[in-house]
Amino acid sequence: MLSKFVAWVKNDPMSVFWLAGMAGTGKTSIAVSLCRMLRKDSTVFLGGGYFCSRSAGSIARTDVRRILPTLAALLADQSQEFAEALTVELETDRRVGHKPAIEQIDPLLRRPLAALVTSSCPIVFVIDALDECADERETAELLKLLADFECAKVKFIVTSRPEMHIRGTPISDPENNTVLHLHTISVEEVESDIRHYVCGTLQDTATATAWYTDSDIELLVKLSGGLFIFGATVLKYVLYRDEDEDRRDRLRKATSAVATRTTATSAIDEVYRLVLAEASRSDALDGEEVERMRQILACILTARMSLSVEAMAVLINITPGRLRGSLERLHSLVYLPANDKQSGLRVLHASFGDYLFERGPERIRVTHSLGHDILAGGCMRRMGQDDLCFNIARSRSSFEQNLETMVDWVPLSLLYACLHWAHHIDAASDRSAFAEAIGRTFRTKFLFWLEVLSVTGRLGLASGILRIAASAVSRLNDLYVLTQPAAGSSSRGPTVPPRRQYLHRVFTRRYQQEYPSHIPVRTPVRGKGLPRLPRFRAVVLRPHLRRNRSNRQPW
Fold first, then answer.
1. What letter would DSSP give residue 75?
2. Residue 553: predicted pLDDT
3. Are 370 and 419 in contact (CB under 8 A)?
4. pLDDT digit string (tens) for 275-303?
């Protein structure tokens, strides 16, 4: 398989290779192995790779707009010539990394690549699991751009499931691009690759006397039905035990459980069912412990970025030790970082999340709203704690520039809460239930929340977060604000009707005095005025103040 890719890179005139396959067929394994092989090949230049993932717990890994900037940055790290050309483009437009792919492709890749004159070998970019990106429209747009990319020395290798929004793009046209569907590969070739993987894994863990036989390997390969994820999950389940006899029993149990299944998908479902059934046995866990496991899994699957064990425990309101204990039996399905403070808590494969949401056993099945309910409550509770406070970055002056080291003062659980509270409330089963918590938190901590966003370089997200929250709790009567510019403001965009209600917290003269560097004003600094920022209408905390606007003090 890998030799086919290398031959294509060196000899085929087409610029895009699309590897399509259903979940668990080994697309990511192939992409990783290919990157390693190309890195060692002196006749090929690996420009960079981007591995999209829904299960990694990171919003960035599902954001189409991060792909081209990342590839450009990886190539710039390796080529001074490319880096210099890219720098010229970035000086012209420093916001290009946040724009749609159609506005990124020329300044980030096409024009800088055209400036390369010393490179003669093909430059390869690998993009894996593109179907796991959140925005289908922008994903399709990116694929159209790659299919139309005209540069003889550049090759793109893309892997994905054959989803409709991907099949409908020019990338699926075999006349202009190379297309390989994994299900069209001969069974013998796929089984040979899986056999090689299984044998290598077992040999690395074998003791003086092998606890498995060749027939065990052959049975596991046959039952896999062409799914790499099946073999990988079964081996993780089996090798979790240290004793040879326990491993032998687990292998026998796993293979016998799926022997009667007729499809590869039902086979991996049966492995998931087996692991979950053993992890939630009534003689090992009581009902409360099973429910805790279910809630933790729901939160892992709905989290919007990769969290540490410690951060997730804080948001769920349990101890890290209890969280680890709840997931200890799911070692083959969930990755637990060794260090409680290290990010990376996630399920090992997206298909496990699909199984839990759609086909899992009733006792452990989860819903999207369950995870959002728990995390929404956890975010509001976390922001209500004392460490969301004035000068969280411990600056010596409110005029001091934010430094990269200041981010270290913000705990991961607090950062997550400040960034994602509104998204979880918007997806919760009862959004209005959080109205009181929102009002209680932001009556005293709104500017502290803004400070966290500012210190971490995310202040530009504030208005978007508030708009999401506003739409989620639009029926509140005791707390609202206009987050759009006031009538007569010099900012761009249409004037918002005064009666339109949004969630926000009040700006008053008292806060202007306490936070002089955070209020948008026009002040001369070294002979230059600060750029004029939009003015915002004040918050109305009590309905009767709306009827007597003369009581409000002007800016």
1. H
2. 39
3. no
4. 888 888 777 788 899 999 999 999 999 99
DSSP state, residue 122:
P
Q: In whole angstroms, what is the distance from residue 203 CA to residue 175 CA? A: 43
Judge if pTM exceeds 0.70.
no
- How far apart are alpha carbons 303 and 294 in whole angstroms? 14
Dist. CA 322–CA 320, nearest whole Å: 5
DSSP string, 139-191: HHHHHHHHHT---TTEEEEEEE---HHHHTSGGG-TTTSEEEEGGGS-HHHHH
Amino acid making up residue 460? G
Cα(322)–Cα(329) distance, rounded to whole angstroms? 13
Three-state secondary-structure class, residue 335: strand
DSSP state of 348: S
CATH 3.30.420.150 fits 2-184, yes or no: no
Task: Please give the single-letter amino acid code of residue 351.
Answer: S
Among the four given CATH numbers 1.10.10, 3.30.1050, 1.10.490, 3.40.50, the one describing domain 287-366: 1.10.10
Are 56 and 134 within 8 A, CB to CB?
Answer: no
DSSP state of 532: P
Q: How do residues 403-435 score in pLDDT, each as one tens digit?
A: 655 667 899 999 999 999 999 999 999 998 998
Pairing status of strand 524-525 against strand 16-20: unpaired
* Annotated domain spans of the chain: 2-184, 187-279, 287-366, 376-551
Of the candidates 287, 353, 325, the one whose C-alpha atom is nearest the C-alpha of residue 56 is: 353
Q: Which residues contact 114 (CB under 8 A, 6 or more apart)?
A: 151
Per the CB < 8 A criterion, the answer to whether 345 and 57 are in contact is: yes
